Amino acid sequence: MKKVLLPTLSYTLKEAIGKYTFITFNVGPGGDVYVLLALDTLDHRTKDNAFASFAKIIPDSPQRYRVLVFRQGELELDLPIHGERFNIHTIQPLGNDLLLACSRSEYRREDDVDLNARVYSRDGSFLREFLLGDGLETIQTTRHGEIWASYFDEGVLGNYGWPVPVGAAGLVAWNELGEKVYEYDPVWPVDRIIDCYALNVASADDVWCCYYTNFPLVHLHKKRIASTWNVSVSGSNAFAIAGAHVLFAGGYDKRDSFTLVRLDPDGTSMVIGEFELIGDDGVAVKPLKTIGRGAVLYVLDDAVLYEIDLKHVLATRGRG
User: Fold this and answer.
1) What CA–CA distance (Å, rounded) separates 20 from 31?
2) I want to staple 193 with a disulfide (CB 3.0 to 4.6 A). Which of 104, 108, 211, 314 is the partner?
């Protein structure tokens, strides 16, 4: 039987979102929540035939977006962005600016590719563009402006015309100008990344990931693999990390569950318990999207955002 997990903090985004279309949210290195809304009708899918549709990189008409930034539930920034020619799927702060990215990029020839990273100032002015590659799963930036990008299988193995995918390593770090500064290089006992399901950039020095095929939990310290663990949670899309404990969100056949795991020094792990998150209304939360940053999980359900601080969970429950 699942145990009850209560949020550390929760707040509604309904009033702020209003009549606009929710696109996504992400979390910056300081714990600020970045929400992206579309002001115009979406033109984000293209039909290949009567049965299949694919992501549309560039809509027929430029889109208007709205960026909301929250700190512990308080609205800090409400910024309109006009005339963006790409469909945007994720957002992060980049130093004092904003980084918007499209998850897809097409290769037509060497000098003709979709530059899918879009940098804006906080007054809404477009500053520059560069390439982050096709198949972006997500991005998380550091306080110093470094960009960590994870990739799903098409970005690793290749699609959209790419002879050599930019994200072939599955996890890549870039500087604020779009220059590659690191590519994931696995060493035994872990294998290469085929699909990076979950990423947690806890600090400028410490980055964690969990990926297909065998879903090891990997800790990178200063861009070197410091530790790896075998974990029994497969398919989790986000996790929080605090000391020797990890709280995984979701997984195969348990999309709405949260699994607490203890990490042991020998690279093994033990499941402490499985939980369901209960909202303020007493009803179990059905996560639409979950982000892990350091020790905190950010869970969105029906325009309500829940923050789960793993340190608080461990302190109130006792450590396993």
Assistant:
1) 24
2) 211
